[in-house]
């Protein structure tokens, strides 16, 4: 039903009857009241007329040759385009069963012949008012759904911003607290190594100049096992140097992962972001008492630098990798529980090592695709349609907020004009594909 700001809208009524006198009578009656009336002599003409211009109401005779009113009504209700049009049956049949059958096939009302003008106009008016109210209600429902979706997106964005701020503060604090002492340790190890080297040289020179040691010195040499101590000192210093280097790399990776100082888009190395995300998750990939190790297979293609919000794309990698780890740990823990023992599940020949495979490739010259797949239990088809809905989660209460994939979808699709897709089958694992343009257009 349309509305016009300049002229009042005249409702369109389709009258279907094989008796021409009835058509003329009803047409005159309705036209006089300002309705636009179209006429059809049989069911097929009525269906064709509905496809041409949708009527606001149909007056439909029951008894017609070829296709009766019941069949016409069934076809109208089976068609998505015409199913909401109200149908009023007009018939000389006054039996209760006839009326019940009419309502069963979708009739909105029933008028018995010979009909009275006042009754016809009253029933037509009532149905048109109901139809008008239904349309207004549908429009309000659509508006409410849109508003609700916008509110959910706003809430997700608010949570996302809060998480970003919290993570930024945490990363900045950790990086600062770790960086200062580790720089001091790393810088002083070089001096310690030189000092020990000098002391060893002095000790060796003393041994050459005074080969005869007193009983007390010989006892100390034997007690501390001097030769072992000298050799092991170099090993310890080397281990300390490597450990300090690793901590420095962790601090750098933490900074690169969060990229707190990069609020704007800029060209970045996607592989570096994936590697930093994996480094942050190393503790979850290692073997524990209840979970076997998770192997990560990287199949990196030759990618150009990609213009994006680096910290947010890193979050997408983190969310998807975390979900893959959760799925793999869930299935391996279940295997341990059902096996009846706490023995290593890798000892059985039928066990498949939990694996995450990461593949990157350039599609054409303008799009980068990152695929993250696991060999976990997979995602049921009934769930896949809701994966990216805010606050939807399949995890046990307290294990997830249902925001990870929703936030990821907003980052990839809305902020980077890309695509985030999921392909999964129960028992066949799950694969998430991230596609983003190499360069973002203004």
UniProtKB/TrEMBL annotation:
Catalytic activity: ATP + protein L-histidine = ADP + protein N-phospho-L-histidine
Keyword Cell cycle tagged: no
Matching InterPro entries: CheY-like_superfamily, HATPase_C_sf, HATPase_dom, His_kinase_dom, HisK_dim/P_dom, HisK_dim/P_sf, Sig_transdc_His_kin-like_C, Sig_transdc_resp-reg_receiver
Protein EC: 2.7.13.3
MF terms in GO: ATP binding; phosphorelay sensor kinase activity
Stretches assigned to the Histidine kinase domain: 173-440
Entries under Pfam families matching the protein: HATPase_c (PF02518), HisKA (PF00512), Response_reg (PF00072)
Keywords from the UniProt entry: ATP-binding, Coiled coil, Kinase, Nucleotide-binding, Phosphoprotein, Transferase, Two-component regulatory system
Domain of life from the UniProt record: Bacteria
Class of the enzyme per the UniProt entry, highest EC level: transferase
SMART domains: HATPase_c, HisKA, REC
Modified positions (4-aspartylphosphate) in chain numbering: 61
Response regulatory domain residues: 12-128
Coiled coil regions, renumbered to chain: 137-164
Name by which UniProt lists this protein: histidine kinase
Protein's organism: Aerosakkonema funiforme FACHB-1375
């Amino acid at each position: 039903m349309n509305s016009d700001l300049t002229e009042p809208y005249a409702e369109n009524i389709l009258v279907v009857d094989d008796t021409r006198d009835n058509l003329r009578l009803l047409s005159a009656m309705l036209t006089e009241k300002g309705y636009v009336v179209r006429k059809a002599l049989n069911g097929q003409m009525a269906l064709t007329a509905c496809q041409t211009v949708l009527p606001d109401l149909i007056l439909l005779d029951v008894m017609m040759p070829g296709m009766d009113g019941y069949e016409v009504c069934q076809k109208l209700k089976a068609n998505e385009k015409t199913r909401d049009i109200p149908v009023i049956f007009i018939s000389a049949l006054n039996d209760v069963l006839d009326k019940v059958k009419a309502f069963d096939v979708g009739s909105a009302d029933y008028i018995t012949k010979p009909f009275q003008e006042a009754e016809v106009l009253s029933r037509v008016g009532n149905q048109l008012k109901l139809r008008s109210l239904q349309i207004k209600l549908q429009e309000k429902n659509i508006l409410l759904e849109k508003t609700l979706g916008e509110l959910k997106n706003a809430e997700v964005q608010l949570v996302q911003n809060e998480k970003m701020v919290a993570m930024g503060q945490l990363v900045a604090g950790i990086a600062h607290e770790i960086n200062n002492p580790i720089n001091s340790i790393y810088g002083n190890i070089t001096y310690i190594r030189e000092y020990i080297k000098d002391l060893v040289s002095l000790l060796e020179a003393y041994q050459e100049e005074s080969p005869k040691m007193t009983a007390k010195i010989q006892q100390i040499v034997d007690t501390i096992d001097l030769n072992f101590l000298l050799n092991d000192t170099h090993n310890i210093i080397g281990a300390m140097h490597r450990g300090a280097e690793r901590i420095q790399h962790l601090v750098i990776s933490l900074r690169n992962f969060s990229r707190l100082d990069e609020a704007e888009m800029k060209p970045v190395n996607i592989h570096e972001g994936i590697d930093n995300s994996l480094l942050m998750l190393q503790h979850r990939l290692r073997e524990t008492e209840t979970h076997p190790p998770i192997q990560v297979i990287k199949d990196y293609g030759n990618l150009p630098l990609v213009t994006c919000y680096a910290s947010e794309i890193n979050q997408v990698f983190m969310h998807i990798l975390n979900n893959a780890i959760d799925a793999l740990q869930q299935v391996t823990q279940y295997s341990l529980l059902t096996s009846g023992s706490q023995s290593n599940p890798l000892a059985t020949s039928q066990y498949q090592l939990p694996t995450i495979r990461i593949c990157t490739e350039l599609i054409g010259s303008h799009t980068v695709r990152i695929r993250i797949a696991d060999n976990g239990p997979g995602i049921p088809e009934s769930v896949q349609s809701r994966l990216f809905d805010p606050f939807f989660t399949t995890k046990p209460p307290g294990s997830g907020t249902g925001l990870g994939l929703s936030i990821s979808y907003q980052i990839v699709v809305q902020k980077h004009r890309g695509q985030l897709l999921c392909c999964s089958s129960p028992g066949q694992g799950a694969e998430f594909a991230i596609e983003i343009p190499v360069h973002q257009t203004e």
